């Protein structure tokens, strides 16, 4: 992976701005209490009242009533983008043009082309950019990766993962609105695909089955990822029915269960031939978001422009799989250029 050298002088305090004060932003901002050397100082919404309320409740210095205003705020080093998926592309490009580093919620963008454009500009400008895939930074997942790297289960040959919730269909809800990036793939499927990509790399084939809501957003999807050497991943996501949220990693010498819910687990179980199962528990700090915030802070302080744990190449690979799955289901995601 290519990691450019430096983004400039290291600041004593990394100052954050929040773009989109929604549900995930509420949880993430609370975890700054566990991050040394970083502080959220401003928030932006297209509703000034909403931004002001968020700033008051979380002790932020400033509230902006437009995304353009926070992009022009000179006292912000990095923006956390938590708007609906199709808005990430335009906000991220404008932020990079304004010289801001980025942490962008998953899914990174609504389309593969949109992700590629953001990544290309981030690399051109030498500005730190990362997808907020908190799963990769969970202590239990770090333990899993260490076990795999140490050969605890031999060669990884297959991955299974599922993540789904039962939601009552509401065509005006963001989850079901195609123009807002609704559907299971971008909201939940990104987790199962990213988990498989982390362990197996990019697939050679993607085969998808699923169904759509009347709005055109996907209700459910099952993905079979195939690799030229015979490895595979079986992944399921849904907004139509609940799933346990479990994952399994199969190797030539054993397997690892990631207990629900796998995208922010506390416990994994190692199974090896001839040995008793070994349960490994690694609790999260705070709400679980602190770990990715610490990674970003350390990267910025070290002058790195990408994370080695969640590199941009992996983000683009995941986005490509999601794009292929959407195409096979007849879903037409699009970026929203009108957000600014």
Automatic annotation (TrEMBL):
MF terms per GO, please?
A: nucleotide binding; oxidoreductase activity
Stretches assigned to the Gfo/Idh/MocA-like oxidoreductase N-terminal domain: 14-128
Record keywords:
Oxidoreductase
* Classification via Gene3D superfamilies: Dihydrodipicolinate Reductase, domain 2 (3.30.360.10), NAD(P)-binding Rossmann-like Domain (3.40.50.720)
What is this protein called in UniProt? Predicted dehydrogenase
Q: Which residues form the GFO/IDH/MocA-like oxidoreductase domain?
A: 142-256
Q: Which Pfam families match?
A: GFO_IDH_MocA (PF01408), GFO_IDH_MocA_C3 (PF22725)
Whose protein is this, by species? Answer: Geodermatophilus ruber
Q: Which SUPFAM superfamilies match?
A: Glyceraldehyde-3-phosphate dehydrogenase-like, C-terminal domain, NAD(P)-binding Rossmann-fold domains
InterPro entries from the xrefs?
Gfo/Idh/MocA-like_OxRdtase_N, Gfo/Idh/MocA_domain, GFO_IDH_MocA-like_dom, NAD(P)-bd_dom_sf
| Keyword Oxidoreductase on entry | yes
Q: Which PANTHER family match?
A: OXIDOREDUCTASES (PTHR22604), TRANS-1,2-DIHYDROBENZENE-1,2-DIOL DEHYDROGENASE (PTHR22604:SF105)
Q: Which family does the UniProt entry place this protein in? A: Belongs to the Gfo/Idh/MocA family.
């Amino acid at each position: 992976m290519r990691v450019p050298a430096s983004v400039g002088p290291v600041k004593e305090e990394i100052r954050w701005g929040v773009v989109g004060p929604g549900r995930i932003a509420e949880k993430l901002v609370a975890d700054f209490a566990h991050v040394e050397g970083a502080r959220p100082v401003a928030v932006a919404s297209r509703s000034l009242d909403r931004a002001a309320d968020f700033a008051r409740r979380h002790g932020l210095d400033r509230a902006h009533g437009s995304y353009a205003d926070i992009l022009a705020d000179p006292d912000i080093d990095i923006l956390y983008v938590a708007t609906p998926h199709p808005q990430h592309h335009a906000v991220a490009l404008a932020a990079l043009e304004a010289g801001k580093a980025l942490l962008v919620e998953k899914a990174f963008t609504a389309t593969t082309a949109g992700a590629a454009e953001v990544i290309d500009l981030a690399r051109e400008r030498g500005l730190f950019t990362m997808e907020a895939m908190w799963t990769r930074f969970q202590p239990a997942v770090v333990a899993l990766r260490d076990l795999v790297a140490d050969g605890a289960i031999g060669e990884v040959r297959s991955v299974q993962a599922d993540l789904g919730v039962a939601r009552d269909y509401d065509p005006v809800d963001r989850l079901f609105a195609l123009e807002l990036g609704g559907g299971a793939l971008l909201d939940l499927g990104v987790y199962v695909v990213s988990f498989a990509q982390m362990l197996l790399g990019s697939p050679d084939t993607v085969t998808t089955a699923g169904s759509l809501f009347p709005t055109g957003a996907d209700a459910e999807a099952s993905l079979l990822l195939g690799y030229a050497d015979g490895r595979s991943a079986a992944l399921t996501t849904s907004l139509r029915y609940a799933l346990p949220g479990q994952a399994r990693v199969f190797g030539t010498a054993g397997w690892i269960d990631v207990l629900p819910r796998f995208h922010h687990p506390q416990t994994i179980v190692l199974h090896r031939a001839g040995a008793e199962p070994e349960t490994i528990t690694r609790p999260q700090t705070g709400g679980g978001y602190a770990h990715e915030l610490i990674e970003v802070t350390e990267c910025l302080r070290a002058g790195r422009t990408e994370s080695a744990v969640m590199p941009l190449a992996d983000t683009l690979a995941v986005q490509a799989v999601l794009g292929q799955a959407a195409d096979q289901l007849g879903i037409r995601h699009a970026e929203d250029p009108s957000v600014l």
